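Task: sequence in, structure out. Protein: MBL fold metallo-hydrolase.
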Amino acid sequence: MMWKNKRFSKPVRSILSIVSAFIFISAAGSNGAKVSTENTESKNIVASDSAKKDASTEDKSKEANAEGSEAKGDVSKDGAAEATKPESDTGNSNVSVNGTLKVHYIDVGQADSILIQQNGQNMLIDAGNNPDGNLVVNYLKSQGVSKLDYVIGTHPHEDHIGGLDVVIKAFNIGKVYMPKATATTATFKDVVSAISSKGLKITTPTVGSTINLGDASATILAPNGSGYEDANNYSIAIKLKYGNNSFLFMGDAEDVSENEILAKGLDVKADVLKVGHHGSSSSTTSAFLNKVSPKYAIISVGKGNTYGHPHKPIMDRLKASGITVYRTDEAGTIVAASNGTSITFDAKPGSYSSNGTGSSAQSSSKTSSGSSSTSSSKSSSSKTTAVAPVPRTTKPSSTTSSSSGKALIKGNINSKGEKIYHMPGGAYYDRTDAEELFKTEAEAQAAGYRRSKR
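Result:
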C-alpha cells in the first residue's frame, strides 16, 4: 500500500494499521459471506433438483399406478360384464363345443326313455314302464354308461318312471330331478325307495335353472305352476343346447303347460322336438309348434297302442309344417348326433300316418315290451296329496260301454289326489290315461270316483 512507502509518525502508522486491518477483515468477511451464500444456494439448487427428480419419479409412479389401476378397473368391468351378460336365447354359438352330443330315444314302446351323452357325461330322462327297467339298464351299459350324472323323472306316471328304480339301483347316480308331485302308487314308492337306498335326494328343478352336461347345457322350461288337474302338466320340460343346435324334451306336457311356457316368453325354438305325450292331440298345439319351429320331430310311441297315438291332428300338423318325423314304433331306438352345427340321425324318417283321431275311445292297456299297465304289479301313477273324493249328487247315467261290451268310462286320479271318472265326449276324455275302466257311472262312484266337471 501507498502509506507503507511514506514516512508517518509512529502513532499515525499504528492507527493506519488498525484501519487497514479492519478493512481487510471486512472485505474477507464479505467475500466469505458471498462464498457461503453461493454454496448454500448451490446446495439448495441441488436439493431442489433432487426434490424435482423425486417428485417427478413419484408423479410417474403415481401415473403408472393410476394407469395400472385404471387398466385393472377396465378388466374388472369387462370381466363383470362378461360374467353377467346373459347367453343368447336363440342359440349357443358363442360357446365352443368339444366332441359329439348324442341323444338316444330308446324304444320302450308306449313310454319314454331318453339317454343324452356329451364329453363323458350322461343324463337319463325317464325309464319307460315297470317291465322296461332291465331293457334300459342293458341299453345304457351297451353305450358305455357306468355313471348317470343326472337322472330326470319327468312326472310320476308309470310309463315314464316305471323302470327308474331298477336303473337307479344299477348305476352310480349323481343327481335326481323330479317335479314337486307325488303319488300313492307302488311305482312311485319304489322309485323313492331306490333313491333313498342310494343316499340320494330328489331335487325339484326351478324354471330357468341350467344343468351343464359336458359342453351342453339344459335349461328347465316347466312346470310353471301347481295344482294341475292332469299330472301330465307337471312334466319337466327341458331345452338342451349344444353349439348352434338345440333339442326340446316335453315329457307328457299338455296344452296347459305349453300355454304357460308361451305366456312367460320362454325360448322354445329348437331343431329337434320330442313331441309331447306320445303324439296325443292334448299336446303340441299349433301356437306352440310354431314357436318351436323344429326341423325334426321325435315321437316315442308303442306299435299298435290302444290309445291311438300318435293322433291324426298332430301328424297332419307336423306334415303341414314340413317337419321330418322319426318314430320309435317304426324305427325302434333312434339316435341323433350333433357336432354343434349339424344333426344326423341313424334312422330313416317315419311316416305321417296316425293310429287314431284323438276323439275315439281308448282302453287302459299300454303296449310296452308286450306289457300293459293293468297287468303290471305296479299301478300307473298320478300326483296325489290325499284329498278325499267329492261325492256326486246327481243321478248316475245309464250303462256306458261299447257295442262289444267293453267299458268306456275312464277312472283317473288327478293332481289333487281326487278320483275322477271321464265320460266319452268329455273335455279331458281323450287325453286321460285310464287307471280303471267302468261300464256305468254307478260302478265308478262305488269305487270312490266322482264325475269330471268337464
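The chain has three domains: 17-84, 101-345, 385-454.
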